[in-house]
Amino acid sequence: MTLTRLTFLTACAAMTALAGCGEDTGERALGAAMYAGTLFQGTGSAPVETGPAPNTVGFSAEAVQANPENFQLFTINALGIAELARLLADNGPSKTWISQSGFTATFENGILVATRGLVGEDIMAAASSGLGQALRAGGGTSSRIIEKLDSLNQIERMTFSCTVVAAGTETINLGVREATGRRFNENCRGETLIFDNIYWLDASGTIIASRQYVSPTVAYLRSNRV
Amino acid sequence: MFGVSAAMAIGRSRRYALVSVAALTAAVPALAQDRGVTYTLYGTPGLIEMPSAMSAADAEIAGTIGYFPGQLRNTFTFQITPNLSGSFRYTGVDDYANDGTTKYYDRSFDLRYRFNDESKWMPAIAIGLQDFLGTGLYSAEYIVATKTLSDSIRVTGGLGWGRLGSYNGFTNPVFPERPPVYILGETGGLPAYQSYFRGDMALFGGVEWAASEKLMFKAEYSSDDGYKNLDGSDQLDRRIPFNFGLAYRPVDNFQLGVSYLYGSTFAISGSVLINPRLAIFPGGLDSPPPPVVVRTGNTAAAQSWASQPLSENDIAARVRESMQAEGLELNSIDISGSTARVRYTNLRFRTEAQGLGRASRVLTAELPPSIDTITLEPMQLGIPMASVSFNRTDLEELENEVGGSAEILARAEMGPAGTEVGMIAVDPIRDDFTWGIAPYFQLILFSGTEPLQLAIGVEASASYRIQPNVILAGSLRQPIYTHIESGEILYDPDLPVVRRNSAIYTEQGRPAINYLTAAYYGRLAPNVYSRVTVGYLEEMFGGISTEVLYQPFDARWAVSAELNYVAQRDFNQRFGFQDYQVAMGHGSVYYAFENDFVAQVDVGRYLAGDWGATFSLNREFDNGWQVGAYFTLTDVPFEQYGEGSFDKGIILEIPIDFIFGQPNRRTVGTTIQSLNRDGGAQLYVDGRLYDVVREAHLGELTDAWGRFWR
């Protein structure tokens, strides 16, 4: 079992091959815009500054084994991502996780309320009402609001009406182990978009795995306990 | 509606993407009004040569090259507002003088206003001026109507004057005579009011059929019979009044056109389309910010607070490190009671709103829990520009909350930066001395009789920061390849040559000290900012430049005064000066309208000692794009100024982060001047205050506030 887990973790690490580059101070080049009048002026080195280097600290097999509750497995099929994330901030019901490739996702009571650092549009903020009750009641309706940043730096709000239905009990692959959970499908409809979220609950009613909508580029983020 | 699929279809019906999200691509929904709008050989929305009443999508920028044997048109068109568009065109006509040698270059400007939107029964109707202040090569006016008949068919009909009234025209009942737009030998470039909508008029029209979403066929009846050379001979063989063509748009940003003109001539065109409102990476590819640390939360940082009270210096050291990771430089800090006041410089993010967000997040993690109020004072060039105060619990509450962006803005207290009293200066982490070597290129477009002038070389630059607000900077340039027009300079005893000799500077400066300056920035009073720059200010002039700006934090307006005393540098751009010296400068008024437009008027004395004013109007998008135009009128008579009569041009500025997605404070920009001459010439000096300071003032902060939690 240990061997399996280590193999898996190595594979995870290998998948986080996002390139990181040096830091550009980003400071306005002093005195450089001399020809602002007539001429188009470029400085030669293309400013391909990027975000931080891949987040490799704190993902050792020992760390995961010691505190498995501080880790999640994130999967984004559209980006070919399947990697570990570790707990970055634990603010009560709201937990922010940072993945090995360096993006973060924040869940509040299991609901995805923010992402940062994903390709394409991040979720700036989100909220769901009625989901918890629907899950407890074995089905029902909920609504979801997702806020994004548009091309002009304005917050754009999208609202969705959702129906939640129970879909039986399933065996869930948590990456290194399997668990049994009750599956719920949440079908959400907005003005121009429909998506399908999935939640798996353990016997105590806690969300142990979910697949939730992020954006057109990313489609869904699947997350589960390890 | 996602992706390129909507690019060419004409219909106005709105479709929905009721599909599984996994099937969606990362594209931007097309807007209803921009569907199927294609560009003419003139680079304007329309048929083949004839205009239509359609407008491009708001803010769309189109660069079009249209060619047929004997004529090449380069056009830049901007959809200034949803209803108003403007175009600048640079045309080359072979053998215009019909002497077998001369290529004639002409610059022209168009405006079009759609005053009626299309409805179920009414067509879209627009009025337009073509080449309204050039030498009148293409001079025409029109009123045109366009109606969409089905998902794939659209018809256009119009009434034209000038060139558009030159074929099969009929007498204008009101103004039968059309005075000449331009008389040979005049300098041109003036609005030809006396001719607008006068003289013969004629009907034109056409039909467009979208065969698929990427391909459109067009046929038109042209009322233009103006393809004549100077001596009246024909520029092309006009056998029939009909043109046929197609427009093909394989992807959203490119359009190709092929057409057959007047039964005799093939023409081709290509357009590149960019819309500042549609970013390549909406929201950007910024690295994730550190989460807000909630004081009641259970985090490593929170545990470390409790261990022991930290001294102000210890806190400063921690904040300095954490800010550095977010591209922010801590300048000074003051912790007293339950309040922390922090001055920092944002080195990474184009918007100060995002810098404020990152600084806030860092401080929630690093400040002791006893601090309840966080006051941030963003700086640039050592100038404290604003004060923004947050209640720490608001930051803790509103992160990741729907509506949290607007709410934190509403709860923040903002105003001018405070005084330095109590602030403890912090040694900067980054080096005071920075340098770099990089290739440079200069591109002069559409000036004089050379459409494209170019200089490529290597530039070594360095700067040394004596204080955050006292900076030495210089650059040395070695050209490697230059293609610069250097026509004969005719000297005028009454008007010094201050810009027409720029080619000599480029030729002789090998290597050239491009600039070498010492700059001092300051804040004289809460809303008064100052700058003094001394040295070799630009390629052609050196001396002293001083500026004072008055700009209240929450005002839409600002005023500034700039006073310079400069001397003309030696052509070799070393340390010497020529004899010409001038005291010049201007007073400026700025106003930022609510609809993204910023107006600026400069009144004063220009480099050649001429007195006058510059008027400019820019559309500034909330993501940093700027598109605008300006003109300068001075006491230099039009005849003395020369071709074009007065200085005018187009301003374009593109933020680097729009292109690459990564955070970056730089922009690339250009000004296309109709002609670069000596009248109305402005001094180029870096660090003019208005553009620096207002980035952290209320208007700009609010415009980009969506990035606060980014």
Give a quick precis of the structure.
Chain A is mainly beta.
How would you describe this structure to a colleague?
The complex is a heterodimer of chains A (226) and B (710). Chain A is mostly beta strands and 226 residues long. Chain A is 12% helix and 48% strand. Chain A is built from three helices and 13 strands, in the order αβαββββββαββββββ. Chain A has helices spanning 2-15, 61-66, 131-136; strands at 40-43, 71-76, 81-91, 94-99, 104-108, 111-116, 125-129, 139-149, 155-173, 178-189, 194-201, 207-215, 219-225. Chain A has a twelve-stranded antiparallel beta sheet. The two termini of chain A are 13 Å apart. The model of chain A is unreliable at 1-53 (pLDDT under 50). Helix content of chain B is 11%, strand content 42%. Chain B has ten helices and 32 strands. In chain B, the strands form three sheets. In chain B, strands 20-21-22-23-24-25-26-27-28-29-30-31-32 form a 13-stranded antiparallel beta sheet. A twelve-stranded antiparallel beta barrel of chain B has the order 1-2-3-4-5-6-7-8-9-10-11-12. In chain B, β26 and β27 (577-592) form a beta hairpin. The model of chain B is unreliable at 1-9 and 11-34 (pLDDT under 50). At the A-B interface, β1, β3, β4, β5 and β6 of A face α5, β20, β21, β22 and β23 of B. β1 (40-43) of chain A pairs antiparallel with β20 of chain B.
The tally of helices of chain B reads 10
The radius of gyration over CA of chain A amounts to 21 Å
SS-based class of chain A = mainly beta
β content of chain A, as a range? over 45%
Helix content of chain A: 10-25%
The poorly predicted ranges of chain B are 1-9, 11-34
Described by its quaternary structure, the protein is heterodimer
Q: Which spans of chain A of ≥5 residues are poorly predicted at pLDDT below 50?
A: 1-53
Largest interface: A-B, 80 and 107 residues
Q: Strand count, sense and closure of the main sheet of chain A? A: 12 strands, antiparallel
Say how many strands of chain A there are: 13
Mean pLDDT of chain A: 78
Counting helices, strands and paired strands, the structural category of chain B is mainly beta
Rg of chain B over CA atoms, rounded to whole Å, is 29 Å
| Straight-line N-to-C gap of chain B | 27 Å
Fraction of residues in helix of chain B: 10-25%
Mean pLDDT of chain B: 89
**If strands are numbered along the chain, what order do they take across the biggest sheet of chain A?**
6-5-4-3-2-13-12-11-10-9-8-7
